Structure formats: C-alpha cells, structure tokens
Amino acid sequence: MKKLLSVICLVVFSAAGLSAANNKIEGKIADVSEKLSQSYRKNRTINFKKAIAIADFENLGAAAKENSLGEAMAELFSAEFSQSTLFRVVERKNLGTIFQEQSLQLSGATDGGKAAEAGKLLDAQALLFGSVSEVGETFTITVKLTDVETGEVLAETISVPKEDLIETREYLLDMAYVQKMGVGITLNVMGITVCGNNSTFSPALGFENTGLQRQFGIEVRYRFTKWLMAGFGFDSIWGQLAYVPNQAWDVSTIAPLDPNNTGTGKFIVDAKGFDIPVMIYFNYNVTRRFNVFAGVGVAYEKITLLGYFEESSGGGGKGFGVNQYGPELSEEVVAGLFRVGAEFFVTPRLAISFQVGYDLAKMEPDFANQWHLISLQNNVGKEINMSGLFLRPSISFYF
Q1: By CB distance 3.0 to 4.6 Å, which of 109, 162, 243, 301 could disulfide with 115?
Q2: SS (H, E, C) 155-166
Q3: What tens digit of pLDDT does each residue of 341-356 get?
Q4: Residue 74 CB: number of other CB atoms within 10 A?
C-alpha cells in the first residue's frame, strides 16, 4: 500500500509540475499575442476580422532544430490567434507549398517588404512569423507581426527556460490541437448495461441472465470549447430483459395433437433494436494526453421484444416472435444517460477511452396478445426495469 501511495504521489506531483510549466509558457504566448494585437489595432479602423497567416518560425540553434520548436511555436500562436476577436487565421497546411512554389523564404524576411510579399501570396492582410534562438540555458523567441498593406512590422520577444519549453513542447502541441479541433468520430464497442431482474456483469449472457449489450455504436462529437463537447450517436442493442423460471404455456386449442401443447419451463424475454443518444460532455485535461470527462444526455430507444423457452423444457416455438406462436412486440423508450470516463490520447488525432455511468429507463410492455403464455404479464411485471450500471470502451478519431 505504501508503495502504491508513493507512485500515486509521484505521478500527481509530476503532472502538477508539468502543468505549471505549461501554464507559464501559454501565459507568455497569450500576453505577446495580446500586445501585438493591441499595437496592430492602433490607428486602424477595423470592422471585420483580418485574415492572418502564421508561418513556421525559424530555428536558429541545434536544440531548436532538433525539437522542431519553430513549427511548434507557429502551431501555438495559431491556436491563440484562432480565439482572437481581431484576426481570422488562414489555413496553415498550404503555407509551405505556396512558399516553395514562389521560392520565398521567410528566414530572411527581416524587413516588412519581404513579409508583405509573402502575406499577399497567402491572400492575408497580416503575417505572423519569427524565430527561436538559443542564449545559454534560455530560448529567445522573436515574434513579428507584419501589416501586408503597409509593410509595418511589430515585434515582441519572449524568453523561456530551455528545459521548460523542450519538456512541454509535445504537451503544448497536443493540447493546442485538442483545444481548437471541432469534430470527432467515436467508435463504441462491447458496451453493457447491467439491468433486468437477473442481471450479470458478464458480457456473455447465459439463458437465465438479463442485461443489455451495445456491441457496436458510433458517435459524432463536436467540441465547442476545450471543456465543452456535444455528441450525437447510434448504437445497436441486444440483450435479455426479463427471466421467468417457471412460465406456463397452453396451445392445446390450436395444436391439440402436439404432445407438448401444455407445460412449464424457463422463459426469457429477449430484446433487440437500436438507440439514438444525444449527449453533453464536460472535459478536463489532467495531463497532456490524459483527459477526464462527465456527461449527461437522453436516448431514444426502439426495441423489439421476443420470448423464448429453454429448449430442454419442451417449449420450443411456444414463445413469441420469429418462429413462435405469439407476435413480437415493438416498444419505444426514452432513457436518461449519465456518464463519467477517462480518455488517453495515443496521438493528437487518436484517443482511447473507457466510460462508466448509469442508464435510467423503464419499459411498460403489453403482453395481452400473448394469450398462450399463462400470466406472463404478472410474471414479468407491469414494468421492466432497464436502469442499471453502464460500462463501455471506445476509440475516437478527431479532425
């Protein structure tokens, strides 16, 4: 136990230290972005957002080149300016191609004219670029904002400890990407809801067990902010909702020659169908790759009920549904969904997660047409409880 507590404390303190360094660097980036924006705003009448292109910063040292800090800084400033009320960030993925086609290098763009030329090629009204250089144990980041129309250059400088920036570079890139991304697709597999009158945690249901399985589902997510996300999905449902140990049947009036036209046996009410959940999630980034979330939502469920006797009871075909005496039932249910979970980013675009939660739902089936099943309504009950603990792993792709 002491060893476990020591490991937990080490992880917590390490994450806290890394988070503090990240917040410090992000704070400096935010401050410089604000200063440049305010300087740009002076003596200008701005009615609409200005298009700004953000180029990769130049790496002016071995450590900066080795860690690709120039590209990292461009991504970080893109994330910051994407939240600006003054600028609209131009898509970055085409910048390198345009520069290559025009044989234009911003490494020498120390004057406003050269930078303005680059901005015009990118159909931007402003251009942000800069450099990352090494001074002892410190990285000096020079940031330049150029007005494409006038050639005016605004500049700011940041000094960051080498160790802090190198250690947190991957974190900053990942989180900057996660914060600004909009759409994700989540594949849900092997979900279970522990419910019914004879529930089990096992994903493989025996004849006498009850529970619902969501063997496959898909959810489209949209992230409004880094902490708020909405989801809209579709899940396939299969399971068993009610078990009756001694259910009687009587089909003697329509099958008088059947030697098994009356009897009792073990009986299960089977369910299959789909649901359409709508969720709101609240997210919190614990570390650069580890995210926890909580969600609440509702689901519309369309479920078909079928009933079967255990084959050994002699009641084969005496239930209801496909190849049975009675007709299948169709039910509609609205369920309340409550979720908490953890998500680990394998890459900035790929994450695996595990959810636990609680489903709140009930069904009120009408077994009046199942005339051959004696007292089925009483045996099952007026309501089938579909509420229970929910468990499911998922894999998500973000764009």
Answers
A1: 109
A2: EEEEEEEHHHHH
A3: 999 988 777 899 999 9
A4: 19
* Residues 395/368, Cβ–Cβ less than 8 Å: no
Q: Distances from the Cα of 98 to the Cαs of 62, 93, 123, 253, in angstroms? A: 26, 10, 11, 84
Topology given in CATH for the domain delimited by 21-180: Rossmann fold (3.40.50)
Pairing of strands 228-250, 138-147: unpaired
In sequence order, the β-bridge partners of residue 395 are 187, 352
3 state SS for 50-89: EEEEECCCEECCHHHHHCCHHHHHHHHHHHHHCCCCCEEE
Q: What confidence score (pLDDT) does residue 171 get?
A: 62
Is a pLDDT exceeding 70 seen at residue 143?
Answer: yes
**Sequence ranges of the domains in the chain:** 21-180, 183-398
Is 183-398 assigned to CATH 2.120.10.30? no
Cβ atoms of 362 and 384 closer than 8 Å: yes
pLDDT, tens digit, for every residue of 303-322?
Answer: 999 999 998 888 889 999 98
